[in-house]
Amino acid sequence: MESRSLRYFVAVAEELNFARAAERLGISPPPLSRAIRRLEAELGVTLFERTTHSVTRTPAGDVLLAEARVALDALEAAGRRARRAAEGPKLVLAVKADGDAGLLEPILARYASQPGSLPVAVRLCGWQEQPRLLRAGEADVALVHAPFDGTGLDTETLAAEPRVAVLAAGHPLAARDRLELADLGLDARSVERHIDEARRGHDDLAQVLTAVALGKVVTLLPASVTSRYPRPGVAYRPVLDAPPVVLSLAWPRQSRSTATAALVRVATEIAEAARNGA
């Protein structure tokens, strides 16, 4: 099965219209229709139900669309990794600034001491951008907080941190030593949605904390943030029943890089030592 056949199929499967798909691909409809019929014959299945007025995917077409997207993304990612390799061997590690639970520096230091280690370029990225960078071949490994889209990725849990409420220093709840989710009008199911809403319109943690200090938002953050961002206008309070925030290491499932494997091994060792208080 050729990549061109898959690209043709994805265009039709997404547009559900041969004329629009052909325009998107820069070809005319007749050769596109012939290519789809050849693909159906090759696979021995019907991918589309066609009438004079509509095109719909069959169950087989739905399955192939999901798999074809992953396969085409993987091909494009392989090309990007090859181009990066031509520039010189290195690992690209994607991480959100201050989204490493304090593990990034010891991981990099231990990895650099390993025989045959490669230079590591740290790519700072936006909220939950790491999985996309991994699938696109723009990063080799990433530190990322759950929940995230793990399609096409392997992962290793490194840390589970308690969450703290982040409030303006003058907020009534800031007078208390500890809180529960109900004090914030939340429950375990609404925590992630609430955090996403607090992030909306803010590019980074510094902007979120500014909004908190101004009394515009109340949010939840990993407890490790409290020692890094002490601010006179911001109060951090433990939330006893908040679900922990889980930090994982993620990398492409198809990766066969020994350098990536070595960094994963080092990261798990560092994380285990941190959990054991070593």
UniProtKB/TrEMBL annotation:
Regions that span the bilayer: none
Superkingdom? Bacteria
Listed GO cellular component terms? protein-DNA complex
Task: Output the Gene Ontology terms for molecular function.
Answer: DNA binding; DNA-binding transcription factor activity
A Pfam family that this protein carries is: HTH_1
Question: What CDD domains does this protein's entry cite?
Answer: PBP2_LTTR_aromatics_like (cd08414)
Nucleus in keyword set: no
InterPro entries in the record, alphabetically?
LysR_HTH_N, LysR_subst-bd, WH-like_DNA-bd_sf, WH_DNA-bd_sf
Give start-end of the signal peptide. Answer: none
Looking at the record, the residues that make up the HTH lysR-type domain are 1-58
Which terms are listed as keywords in the entry? DNA-binding, Transcription, Transcription regulation
Record family assignment: Belongs to the LysR transcriptional regulatory family.
- The protein's name is LysR family transcriptional regulator
Per the UniProt record, the source organism is Streptomyces tendae
Highest lineage ranks of the organism?
Answer: Bacteria, Bacillati, Actinomycetota, Actinomycetes, Kitasatosporales
